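Feature request, filed as a ticket because there's no other form

It would be nice if the structure record came with a short human-readable summary line next to the tokens. Right now we just get the raw output. Example of a typical job, pasted below so the devs can see what we mean:
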Amino acid sequence: TPVRLANAINVAAAEQAARRAARTHDGAARAALCEQYSALAAALAELAGQVYQTDVPDKRKARRLEQLFSEIGLEPLETTVAQDASGRVTATVCVPRLSFTADELKVITDEVSTLCRRFAPAQCIHSGTVTKLLFRERPRFAVDCAVCALPAGGDISADAIQAFPDETGHFHAVLCDGMGTGKAAAVGGVLAASLTKELLHAGFESASTARLVNIALALKSDDESAVALDALSIDLYTGDAVLYKAGAAASFLLRDGKAAVYSGDTLPIGILGSVTGRRELLCLSPGDTAVLVSDGALAPGCARSSWLTRTTRPKSWRMRWPARRGKSSRTCPTT
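Raw output as currently delivered:
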């Protein structure tokens, strides 16, 4: 009968469409999985290259450091002083498990700095019955950071900001702008910014970080979750910086009263299976100011866009010399 025939055809067509959708979904999942493994393999290869860099030991300073700890009553179990390929000195001292206050670590760091080189406050790592004191060379530069965020509408801003230093002497500034407005855009921005922070802090490069975050956004839900990514990483020993942009608004570097503009015609992350970001190499000097903005600050008719180029004393990321031992802090003039 026509009704039964039509129902049978309808059921068969629905089953065929379901099988086709399942094949498409499986293909997308396999592609995402392959991209995830590829991105993770590339990132781990970068980390492996950092781990296997050869450090040059300084046995003379190690003996002097061992004698210092013996004199203050902390008989060291192991003492090493080494210089990496960039010329940075790292010292480690293992002693029987002890607890140190912040003031005690400061005093110990000052004494060790007189023997080796100027170090940042020691990092205390406990493992079993041993306490390891890790001394890293103090960076030449420091960063002043300020953030201003205003929602486009309502009480929720789609922009997510992370600004933090890591243990290797780098400062990272991350700005993620979820496409759209409201909660949906804010969720994508916060997820991307949080994951970017964790990966950069773990030592991943910005390009590998963007690939891994792109996969996370793609697997988050079936709905498209596009996020514009800005990531600025500054080496506080040399002033060299890497600016990575993926679908983000223009960034600015203010120097000597002039603004250099860095932009890229790229897509946000979370849209395609791969990332088409742009990587810029910068060399920052004391007094330079880097400004990362979302597209709202550059919208037509927005007064902030003209401020970015005409201002002479901004208060975003500003490099300054840290205080030296026995001397007062000297802040470099700002542009």
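Something like this underneath would help us a lot:
Residues 312-335 have pLDDT under 50 and may be disordered.
The two ends are 85 Å apart (CA to CA).
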